[in-house]
Each structure stands twice: as C-alpha cells, then as structure tokens.
Specification:
The complex is a heterodimer.
Chain A lengths: L2 E8 L4 H15 L4 H21 L7 E8 L3 E8 L21 H9 L2 E5 L9 E7 L2
Helix pairs in contact in A: 1-2, 2-3
Chain B lengths: L6 E2 L3 E7 L4 E9 L4 H12 L5 E11 L1 H16 L4 E4 L3 H9 L8 E2 L2 H10 L11
Parallel strand pairs in B: 3-4, 4-5, 5-6
Antiparallel strand pairs in B: 1-2, 2-3
The chains are: A alpha+beta, B alpha/beta.
Chain lengths: 135, 133
C-alpha cells in the first residue's frame, strides 16, 4: 500500500542518527534488501550532515523530510529553510579530488536518483531529492 | 591480554591491544559527524606512540564520510612519521563507501584482521618493504 509522511525536526547532531535510522527502518519495512537499507542510511546520514554544516549559521534550524513509498521505490525529499544557496551545489558525478564533496558523491553512487533541487518555497532553503528502488 | 577499553560517546567505542610488534586498534559502533572528532582524538593519542598500527573496522555498524576522513587523516599522520598503518575487515556497508571513494589506492586495506596484522605488524619487520613505500 502506498503511503507518504513528513518528519519535522531540528538539524541537531543528536537528531541525525535518529532520522537516518528511521529512514533505514522504513526501507526495511518496505521490503528493501540489507544493501538497500544500508544505502538509504548512508545517503540520509550524508544529506543530513550536509544540511547541518551548510543550512544554518549556528548549525541548528528546522529540517523536513518527506518520505513516500509505492512499494517499488522509496522517494525522499530533505529540505531546510536556510539561506538560499546562490551557487547551487550539485551532486558530484566523479570522485572529488579534494576532501569536500565526498559525502554527496557517495550519495549519488548509492541512490538511483539524487539531486539538489530548487527550493520548494519562495522563502528559500535548499532541498535534496533522493529515489531508491526497493527491489 | 587485557585490552584497555573506554567508551567514547553513546554510539562508538575505541579500544586497543598492544603487542610486541605494534598496536591493534578496534573501532566499533556508529561513527558520524557527531563523534568523528572524538575518534580522531582517540586515534591520534595512540598514533603518537610511534608504533605500527592496524585499525580493525570489524565492529563498525555505520560510518559516514566524516569518519572516513578521520581514517584518511590517521593514515596521513602515520605516513608522515614513518609508521606503518593499515585498515582491516571493513563490513559491507563501509566497504561500499570505501570502494566508491577508491580508498584502497591510498590506504592498505585487508579483508581480515589476521592478514592485516601479519602484513603490517609481523611480516613487515623482515619482509619486503611496505607496498608503495
């Protein structure tokens, strides 16, 4: 049965492990293999860490995660209300040479679809959209 | 041999065994942005002893890119001071991230702790030079 839900929380160091594990659990409940479950947890951890680092000046601010499943795919949208990113960071498609960008590169390699998209709201913010096949 | 153990934070632990040849460090649990710095402090304190090191990753459940960055830093630190350094037995989820980041081109990584200990702590004393050295 298809479903969708939204999580609201603050981008604190303590919420990152809770939310990434929740999403991994959702992938498991939807029939994802251990590889799928682990990939979802890794990708979520990286995206949330990125939001923690870049979205808000003090590191802490509101985050929303929209999740939906149709039994075939898990679709995830992580968005913040932080300052709009002028130079929109992309998901690197090749291995970054420096130390930055490695987390998002892993996300791109583990997910079926991953992109930093235009803010959902006019007030700003950054959003990351992920899709992972459950089969 | 009793292993000095110490829990760091809620999610992970770092303890070690000291042998006549070097240190075998066991890191386990979850490593992310929230405790990567603690891991780095733990590892650096051990690296400062100047001995060959094997880090066993067998007990890692989850490690993000902040944790991987710490492993890269630890390897760099060791190389600069001429110490041998290797990683051992990364579990599957971490193995995937290691492969994606092509970490094996930079750090020696062994599929088993035994092989890593043999190559890094034992064999290296009498055998051929460290690969890439």
């Amino acid at each position: 049965m298809a479903w969708e839900l939204t999580l609201h929380f603050r981008s604190e160091l303590a919420t990152i492990p809770v939310v990434r594990r929740l999403l991994a659990h959702m992938a498991r409940m939807e029939g994802g293999s251990e590889e799928v479950v682990q990939s979802v947890e890794v990708a979520m951890g990286e995206v949330l860490a990125n939001a923690y680092r870049h979205a808000y000046r003090e590191g802490v601010g509101p985050l929303q995660v929209e999740v939906s499943s149709d039994g075939e795919r898990l679709r995830i949208l992580v968005h913040d209300d932080g300052a709009p990113v002028v130079d929109k960071p992309a998901i690197p498609r090749s291995l970054p040479q420096g130390t930055s960008g490695r987390g998002l590169y892993i996300v791109g390699r583990l997910m079926d679809e991953a992109e930093v998209i235009n803010p959902r709201r006019e007030s700003g913010g950054t959003a990351v959209r992920l899709v992972k096949s459950l089969k | 041999m009793p292993a000095p153990a110490r829990a760091s934070g809620d999610l992970f632990s770092c303890h070690y065994e000291e042998t006549s040849q070097g240190l075998l460090i066991h890191v386990s649990g979850d490593i992310d942005l929230g405790n990567a710095l603690t891991l780095w402090c733990d590892l650096r304190a051990l690296l400062e002893r100047g001995r060959p090191v094997v880090v066993s990753l067998r007990g890692i459940r989850y490690m993000d890119s902040s944790g991987i960055k710490v492993l890269i830093e630890a390897h760099r630190y060791s190389t600069r001071s001429g110490q041998r350094f290797a990683l051992a037995e990364p579990p599957k989820p971490l193995r995937r991230a290691i492969d994606v980041l092509e970490l094996e081109k930079v750090i020696p990584i062994y599929p088993s702790v035994e092989a890593a200990v043999w190559q890094t702590l034992v064999y290296s004393k009498t055998g051929p030079p460290w690969p890439g050295s």
